[in-house]
Amino acid sequence: MRNAILSRAPHMIRDRKYHLKTYRQCCVGTELVDWLVQQSTCVHTRSHAVGMWQVLLEEGVLSHVDQELGFQDKYLFYRFLDDEEHTPLPSEEEKRESEEELPETILFLAQMGPDALLRMILHKPPGQRTGDDLEIIYDELLHIKALSHLSNTVKRELASVLIFESHAKAGTVLFNQGEEGTSWYIIQKGSVNVVIYGKGVVCTLHEGDDVGKLALVTDSPRAASIVLREDNCHFLRVDKEDFNRILRDVEANTVCLKEHEQAVLVLEKSPRASSLGNIRYTVLSGTPEKILYHFLETMRMDTHHSDPGFLFLKFSMLHIGDSYVIVVCYIFNPVCTYHAVAPPGSEQERLEYAVTCKRRVLNLVLRWAAVHTYHLQEEPAALLFLEVHTHTEQHTHTRTHLRSCLSLCVSVCRSCMGVCPTPLPDQEGPSAGSMSSFELMSSKDLAYQMTLYDWELFSCIHEHELLYHTFGRQSFRRTTANLDLFLRRFNQVQLWVVTEVCLCGQLSKRVQLLKKFIKIAAHCREFKNLNSFFAIIMGMSNPAVSRLTQTWEDPSRNHRAYRLTVTKIEPPIIPFMPLLLKGKPKLGHIQ
């Protein structure tokens, strides 16, 4: 980096005077950030650039003139290690090499930057953290497994009190069995062993797990000892006082409705009050019946779509609107919905109650229809509810015809399988690679054409297909054909990379081919095509390829860096679909 700066902007490294004192061969923090942002599109924001310089600061390549531990985007002086040791200026050959290596160096620092930035922020005392700092910590907490059951309000509270703690050596004891519980720990990096006297190691906890909560909740001694299993483990620590305060706030702001000792509806008090001045509650979890009943009870009679409550209801129905049978049956419930029985009272009061219930249900149905219009035309239960009458004979004839056609297709497929039990020559796959024609094509043009095709497939996916895939398409009787095709495309690109590399017999050509794929992956990232980008990377990480090169790092270690990167990229993008679907089952389990 120093040589690249001396090659492109040598004026940045020079003697500086400040308060009658001269600092030799220094750079200014703001100038370093400006320069790095201008060098590559993979540097998304100034805070991202700060994290990248923080990596060099932690490694000792860069240092603050007053030995401060955090890099800041301010008029502060920093010095490269080579300048402290009075290393001579680089030669023209060294400058040329630094120019060639600069893109790879920036890409590496871009991957390491978010972690370094987070560590720097967590080293700050809680009272010195800015709003942007708290937002970065909060974004990190969203992806920690141990906090997945907590609400966003609680996570924001935790973001303001978390303290960073690290231990360098394996075998270090975090706390001993029988000690008083003073802190709660979340494992950010590394792993630990849980040791109980007389039993030894009972389990191992890894990144994302938490330890020490039981002693704080029950106010009892530690039930086990925690011993570091590997070097350089990082923890996020919450002290007992903050832990108890946040828990009390959670209990005060959470309402739990139980039936037969089972929680059927959990509400959290929202910081925003309703337009009528009442307390507004957000649904955290519950059974579909209770969630719907809560909406019916709290729905305003106003039907204007400008009502913020309508937007919240519309968003919620995107998640529960496909449970047609449950919704329709619940609306037909004679106790509390459309045909609700009025409580004792005068005739006028009973009439007003009945009209109010019917109007409330009709209001919900109208809004439901606005969100799921095409589903109302397909779902039998919804059609029955809306009293759409058709000729039963015609439907019976159609079902019989479809059943006969389906049986015919199945029989034809089975007969074909019997006639051709072995693969045809065309199904065996290629016997020679396409290196000769492949190397003549532009890497950027290939990446562009791949992006166009991937975008066409991705645009056809309906958001409901993600829900069908997560919760089981058999539960909805719906197809996920577009999503399946897009996932198949990922596998095709990945296996295409493996096939081309393995079919390339000459070592020199194989090296050129790997460089070609790396360039294509880099261009895919520039085009925001993260799906093909990861497909190529994982193809080169396939055992059949890594056995040849032994140079590829497991891309799964960059999943959190991927999520942080996605939040900083302006849409539209083509996401890494396998990772997106990987997080869906956990979310579904929580809901």
UniProtKB/TrEMBL annotation:
GO terms, biological process: Ras protein signal transduction
PROSITE patterns cross-referenced by the UniProt entry: CNMP_BINDING_3, DEP, RASGEF_CAT
UniProt keyword Phosphoprotein, yes or no: no
SUPFAM superfamilies: cAMP-binding domain-like, Ras GEF, Winged helix' DNA-binding domain
Keyword Ligase: no
Residues in DEP domain copies: 7-82
Any one Gene Ontology cellular component term annotated for this protein: plasma membrane
Name the UniProt record assigns to this protein: Rap guanine nucleotide exchange factor 4b
Domain Ras-GEF: 442-591
Taxon lineage: Eukaryota, Metazoa, Chordata, Craniata, Vertebrata
GO molecular function: guanyl-nucleotide exchange factor activity
InterPro entries hit by this protein: cNMP-bd_dom, cNMP-bd_dom_sf, DEP_dom, Ras-like_GEF, Ras_GEF_dom_sf, RASGEF_cat_dom, RASGEF_cat_dom_sf, RmlC-like_jellyroll
Residue span(s) of domain Cyclic nucleotide-binding: 146-247
Record key words, sorted: Guanine-nucleotide releasing factor
